[in-house]
Amino acid sequence: MAGESGQWFWNAAQNPFSPNTPAQWEPYSAQDNAKIEQSLKNKDTKAELASHHIFFKERMQVHKSDFQKQRPVKRDPPPPK
């Protein structure tokens, strides 16, 4: 994590919506994380990655070609100064 940026994660669990399945938070790559952070800074409603959209209000990753493929996302804030 560089500067003022937070780190974004997606839930990689086999069934990310099951209350019985523990979350497996995987970080986005530095490049994708920078895109997400820039979209958030711009107050966009979503960030566009190569094959997914990140919807900020819903905190959801959605596959561009299959809206049924969704996963929760989260953001860890930047570390304190």
TrEMBL record:
Lineage: Eukaryota, Metazoa, Spiralia, Gnathifera, Rotifera
Matching InterPro entries: WWE_dom (IPR004170), WWE_dom_sf (IPR037197)
Signal peptide: none
UniProt feature, compositional bias: Polar residues: 12-23
Region (Disordered): 1-26, 59-81
UniProt-recorded name of the protein: WWE domain-containing protein
Superkingdom of origin organism: Eukaryota
Domain WWE: 1-75
Pfam family, one: WWE
